[in-house]
Specification:
With 321 residues, the chain is an alpha/beta fold. The chain is 45% helix and 15% strand. The structure holds 2-amino-3-ketobutyric acid.
Length: 321
């Protein structure tokens, strides 16, 4: 039975990983942590510790206190915020990774999950069905940190035997916790605004196609990868991972099937340039072959689930207020 620490548990993916891993391993086997108490659902759902991912001792004290053997490092600064604070993004994304890699190298923990991203690719990468191994010249600070991180993960595996596993997440869409500071965030905001206002102003242009995935699929992939036997893992940098690709126009048409008077307008900002540098679709055949990855949600199924869940959420918050 693993003893798990999630760093960045209050965030969009960290929060849902926490709930899922607690379902699988039991509440006491999964320690949630973050730099502050900014998600009370997570804080109140089980053991929670304040951990600063940038501070080696803060992480190590928590690892020793709970005899942790597995870390999911979910704390990171994403693409849009990273462009505003380049040095902060570099420090957070790199220091936190080195801390957990070194804890594994020194024998304190046995296994690491570290998320990479489609942001490792850049304008010189083939945009359609982007291969696992291809030209990678990222133009965002976030993308640079993820690409460099991937190289270090592979290095620690090859030279020190560290069992670190990673996925290149596309944009992740979910209804429980909002994402923060990414370029793909529009695909979450649009559902909230559709229900609250019936209108959304997109910061990406109507035909900007990006790889995306529903949260349940992302969590499923993460757990499948971590449970796979070591000999099945042929990629120790980070696996391409894909489910669906769509544009703001296509997602708005899917929403209109549920909310017929929904309207979208387009006001592209600095995030358009980031989106233009990323692939439109991803070839994830290595993940499908090595550890049987399969996605379950297409655009229609995801849209029904998002709208049903958000309607209930906003209805309940009205009743409770
Ligand atoms: C972002 O938009 O920065 C992230 C990502 C694709 O990694 N969601």
């Amino acid at each position: 039975m693993p003893k798990v620490l999630i760093i960045g548990a209050c965030g969009q993916i960290g929060s849902e990983l926490t709930y899922k891993l607690r379902e699988i391993h039991g509440n006491d086997a999964v320690i949630a942590s973050d730099i502050s108490y900014n998600n009370l659902d997570v804080v109140n759902s089980g053991i929670f510790e304040i951990v600063d991912a940038q501070d080696y001792s803060s992480v190590k004290i928590c690892v020793e206190k709970y005899q942790i053997d597995t870390i999911y490092l979910m704390a990171a600064m994403l693409s849009a915020t990273g462009e505003k604070y380049p040095m902060k993004a570099w420090d957070l994304n790199m220091n936190s990774l080195f801390h957990v890699l070194n804890l594994a190298k020194e024998g304190f923990i046995k296994q690491i999950f570290w998320p990479s991203s489609i942001a490792v690719f850049g304008p010189t990468t083939p945009t359609l069905n982007t291969p696992q191994h291809t030209t990678m010249e990222p133009t965002t600070v976030y993308g640079i940190t993820k690409q460099v991180g991937e190289r270090w993960c592979e290095y620690y595996f090859k030279n020190y035997g560290v069992d670190v596993r990673s996925l290149r997440y596309p944009g992740i869409i979910s209804w429980k916790t909002m994402p923060g500071g990414g370029t793909t965030d529009y695909a979450v905001e649009i559902y909230h605004q559709a229900i609250l206002d019936g209108h959304y102003q997109s910061f990406l242009s109507e035909n900007t196609e990006l790889p995306m995935m529903f949260m349940d699929d992302a969590i499923d992939a993460t757990i499948k990868l971590m449970q796979a036997p070591s000999e099945a893992i042929t990629i120790r940098s980070s696996y391409n991972l894909a489910a669906i690709s769509f544009t703001p126009k296509e997602i708005s048409e899917a929403i209109k099937k549920h909310i017929s008077n929904f309207e979208i307008s387009y006001e592209p900002d600095f995030r358009q340039q980031i989106a233009n540098s990323w692939p439109k679709s991803i070839d994830d055949s290595s993940a499908r072959t090595d550890w049987n990855w399969n996605h379950k949600y297409d655009l229609e199924k995801m849209t029904s689930e998002m709208i049903n869940q958000l309607r209930k959420k906003y209805q309940n918050s009205k009743i409770n207020s």
